[in-house]
Structure formats: C-alpha cells, structure tokens
Amino acid sequence: MTNVAIVGAAESDLGRTGKSILTLQAQAIPRALADAGLTLADVDGIATAGVSRFSATQVAEYLGLRPAWTDSTFAGGSAFEMYVARAVQAIEAGQASTVVISYGSNQRSARSRSLGGVKETHTPEAQFETPYGPLYPFSHYAMAAQSYLHKYGAARESLAEVAVAAREWALRNPKAYRYGAGPLTVDDVLGSDTVSSPLTVADACLVTDGGGAVVLTSLDRARDLRRDPVRVLGYGECTTNTSMAAVDDLTVTGAVESGRAAFGRAGLTPADVDVLEVYDSFTITVLLTLEALGFCGFGEAGDLIADGRIRPGGGLPLNTSGGGLSYNHPGQYGVLLLVEAVRQLRGEGGARQVEAGAATGAAPKVALAHGTGGILSTHATVLLGVE
C-alpha cells in the first residue's frame, strides 16, 4: 500500500474530433486538474506518451511547464499503469509533488492506424513473421485466440461474450462511441466479417481519437483537495516479448507476474476487487488477463464470465465504460482504464455505476486497472481503493 492517491481524472474530447494530439492533451490535463481543484501551476511532474519519443518534453513546452520529473516510457497500452508506479515512487522520494499522467491521439481523424504487417522490417523478428503477411496486431492476437480455443477446447462464444458485455456497458455511457448503437448479440459477433481467424471485426477494439489524464499527489495532501482521494494500493509490471515467434505459450501472459506483484504490494487478493477495468484490445485479451491475474484457473475464463456475469448487474463488473471494444480506443487505452476506475470508486458512474453490494448500495471500495501493450508484450496492473 502506498501513500499516494489519484485526485483528478478526465477525458479529452473523444470519437472523431478533428483535433491535434497536443490539443487533446491540452484538453485532458486541465480538465483533470480542475477535477482535483488544482491548476497547471501545481504540476511539477509529467508522464505521457503518444506525441513522439520526446512526448513529455513537447507536452511540457506546449503547456508552459518546467517539470522537475518526467517519464515518456513507451510500452504501448500498459504504459499508463506503469506511469502510476513511477509517479508513486517519484512522489514518495520527493522528486515531485503533483504528477499528471496523460495521453492523446487523433488516429481516427488522421486515419493513421496501420494494419499492414510489422512496421519495422529491420527488426530481428521480421525475418520470421513478415513473409507470412500478418495484420499487425490483429493476426498476432488471432494466433493467441486460436491457441487458446485449441488448448482448452473453449467455446468461440466465450470470446463473443466479452464484446456483448462491453456493448451493454457502453449503452449506459453517453460518451461511448457505440452509445445509442443498440445491443450486440453473440450471433452478431460470430457473424461479423472475419479478419484473422478466429477473430472477427466485432472482436477488435475501436479506432478513435481521444485521450485522458489523471493527477497524483501525496495522500496527506490529497485529503485537503476537492475530491475524496483514490489511493494507489499496489502495482506491478512485466515485459515479455516483442514478437510472437519468441513466445512458448500464447495462452499465458506476463499479467501473471504483474498481478502477483500488485496484489502482494496491496495485501489483497482477486476476491477483494469490486470492479475491473481490463485492457480489451481484442476479446481474447480479456480472457487471458482474467486467468493470468488469478480471477479463475487457466482455461476457465469462459465459465467465469458466463450467464452475464460481466454485464451490468452481474457479479463481476468489467470494463464498465464500455471498454476499448465499445467506448473508445485511441491507440493506447491504458489511461482511460484509470479514469473509469477512479470514477467508479468515487461513485460517479451514473447509469453504469457499480455497487459493491446490493445490501449496502455503496460504491465499490477496490478497483483493478490492467494495461496490455504491444502484442501481449507488456503488462501492468494497478490496484486502487477508497478509504
């Protein structure tokens, strides 16, 4: 358990915005600071990605800041959960007092998402993978899904259930890209166009603009700010691979190690978690992550999520915003996992608000946010709680 808390959280504009990456960053950061009752003048630490190799430098200059601490680690969608760990360490070490974690992307407006294979053909793995023409990252996740279905004899419908549940949550979230689109059925998912077998279009995350930000400071200081603090209880990470050719078992991810570390630091177990925000780049990502984090045994995720358990009103609330599958997915989704976890813990979910128990009617007390980056390459877990 740490002595650092998240005190502000916000999104930028979402969907198709027509705005630049820095403009989206400049929306999300002041909104998150205002949520906390702070201003740009309070910020002395920035952790961000998505602009360039010098993301923190560019964001700091754009906002007129001279931070004492920065981090621009590029690890894909898990980077922002990693930034939480780095920010906690910086604040506890006295390197910074107020850290903003942010992200922005305009990939839908810019039509910048590529599916045309491994982009860097000079990398060591390219000689083994590029000749087969994989769609990056679609085919790589499809390999994991095919391996999972074969190894455990799992039902294809279990993957579809992840997308169906995400849509039901999105229908309760006015900010969701699929809000108002109508419900999704298992048959809809299975019947949509196959992109890389066994995955269809409906198994894949959205392509949108957007971003978000969260603000962290010491727990003592947080108690005097506008919002009730959301304490960082634990964190962990693991980096495993850059290629699929190097992976011995595509059904077991580095979330095993990241989850073990996060639960260990927090002194908690999966049974203590009230709400989960899990990276859903593809439906298979969720099943693999639930198993690796210990919410069920390997090969048992299909049974775990059956009977609407991860849908609204179910016993395991998961991706309550609608997730990357139906809410928004601006290239790297990890910061929005944190934003939604904070809102759920503060009881600000509106029509999608989760209750810790029907008897109490109270908001959840513990939330888990887990990011996955690359092609099941990087994994980072954060546990958050309210006092």
| Total separate domains | 1
Q: Average pLDDT across residues?
A: 93
Instruction: Specify the CATH class.
Output: Alpha Beta
- Succession of helices and strands: EHEHEHEHHHHHEEEHEHEHHHHEE
Please count the beta strands (DSSP E, at least 2 residues each).
11
Q: Which spans have pLDDT < 50 for at least 5 consecutive residues?
A: 114-119
Helix segment tally = 14
So, CATH architecture?
Answer: 3-Layer(aba) Sandwich
Proportion in helices:
25-40%
Shape: globular
Q: Alpha-carbon distance between the termini?
A: 12 Å
Task: For the largest sheet, list the strands in their spatial order.
Answer: 3-2-4-7-1-8-11-10-9
DSSP strand content? 15-25%
Radius of gyration from CA coordinates: 19 Å
CATH H-level superfamily title: Thiolase/Chalcone synthase
Largest sheet: 9 strands, mixed
The structure class reads alpha/beta
CATH topology: Peroxisomal Thiolase, Chain A, domain 1
Topology overview:
Blueprint: E1 4-11, H1 21-36, E2 45-49, H2 55-63, E3 69-71, H3 79-92, E4 98-105, H4 107-110, H5 126-129, H6 138-152, H7 156-170, H8 186-191, E5 194-196, E6 199-200, E7 210-218, H9 219-222, E8 230-239, H10 255-266, E9 275-278, H11 283-292, H12 301-304, H13 323-326, H14 334-345, E10 366-373, E11 378-386
Parallel strand pairs: 2-3, 2-4, 9-10
Antiparallel strand pairs: 1-7, 1-8, 4-7, 5-6, 8-11, 10-11
Helix pairs in contact: 7-11
List keywords for this structure.
18% strand, nine-stranded mixed β-sheet, Peroxisomal Thiolase, Chain A, domain 1, 387 residues, 14 helices, 11 strands, alpha/beta, two-stranded antiparallel ribbon, 33% helix
